[in-house]
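dumping this here before i forget
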Amino acid sequence: MNNTALLLDSLDNVGVALCDLSPEEQVNLEQHSLEIRQFIPAKHKFALQDFQPGDDIFMYGTVVAEVTQEIKQGAALTVENIRHKTNTYQLTDKIAPRAKVDTGSWPTRTFLGFKRADGQVGTANYWLVLPLVFCENTNIKLLQEAFENALGFAQPNPYELQIKALVSGNTAGKAPNESFDTPQVAPNKIFPQVDGIRFLTHSMGCGGTRDDASALCSLLAGYIHHPNVAGATVLSLGCQNAQVGLLQEKLAALNCQKPVMICEQQQEGTTHALLSKAVKETVDGLKRANQCFREPAPLSKLVVGLECGGSDGFSGISANPTLGHVSDVVVALGGTAILSEFPELCGAEQDLINRCTRPELAKKFVHLMETYNASAKRVGSGFDKNPSPGNIKDGLLTDAIKSCGAAKKGGTAPISDVLDYPEYIVNPGLNLLCTPGNDVESTTALAGSGANLILFTTGLGTPTGNPICPVIKVASNTKLALKMPDIIDFDAGTIISGEETPATAGERLLELVVAVASGEIQTKAEEKRNFDFIPWKRGVSL
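structure:
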């Protein structure tokens, strides 16, 4: 790889700066030899030819933008001189040919997981406590405090110490680094086979549409049915739209056989009666969950969620293709990968259509994409508005540029299923899941659809995690990995420096996946207790 600039595809007419490029600097990219006209920041794109308004910009071998102002060869692409544009796409019955994936020694490898009666295998073993309606959030928090204190999992807050020191006037206000940079040592576990109790809160369940209530109950049912969950305690008020009976219908549809303890406040009477019942039944549930043990399971039992957030101009070059390799290997082994964030597949539709194994899957994908985009446009915010200020600052100038890089997370595997939110996985292989690009809404949905581990790429950094699903953070660049070591688990910046390829980095990442899935390594998000949970209220969220 050229260590200063990169041509992603022979059809492309722009290059990517791998480092800051100065005016008059000479760049040679395959058949292109040119002089840089202006300062080009790393991650940004520059013209390989002269452009006139109306010309198409190609990246990743496809149209990603349209020129709005004259651009000279060697000049920078900016939001002032290009705008979002994609190729048209069409349905086809032909499945694109796919190269055979080299699985190496992986077919004989295993991870240590929790085997469930329904055949799923968990990468963790949690008891779940959740509300059907936001009215129970306070009670959920009371239970969380009680259980974490009683079981020894409560952790000191270093900033509490800093505040006390500042108030007393005994310090300049610096927090003691060692208290939060070093992971807290876990106490002796009363239930050694239980990885923790996870407490969910949310803002839904009542006051919305009946469709919102139905989607919420489907999502919560997916969390209870999840392979990383041994059982659940459910708090209900009683009068909300998200009724206990509706949740039970959703659980029955999944054929969920796990213990689910229902505690309804309007039946129990006092808060004390409600929470005392919840405590007793949760302790009983923990005793049952503690009877589960990790045992070897084939990698075909991995269900890997694919996510990106805080993306930059290197994400589609390093981190996302690395996930693509992992996804391809897992799928080739008979496992499952889930690619989400439909607003960030805009411009990559034709490739995904061509990879659908059945015509009805392609039709469902197109329908979901077009319906979603139309609903966003009705309120003045189509897919073209997806890139954030941070994305744009670091080189992702249009949604198509962002999307074509984001789609690389899905590798090259055939698409075995297309899921609408919040459907649960049925078929192994590569699944497409309709979610927003919003990081937490999407990771929440991935776990709700059955992902037992999530790979999350970032170029700018984000602490996002999930309550029941380990989230491995993959940095697109080494600078980020060094800057935020407390939230980054894996550095894919070695691809940018030329030390590795996406395939070799992917092999290294898959080793980390096996270790995390086996409970041998805790992710940074787990260490930091970044247990983020936001159900998607089906409206406009990009």
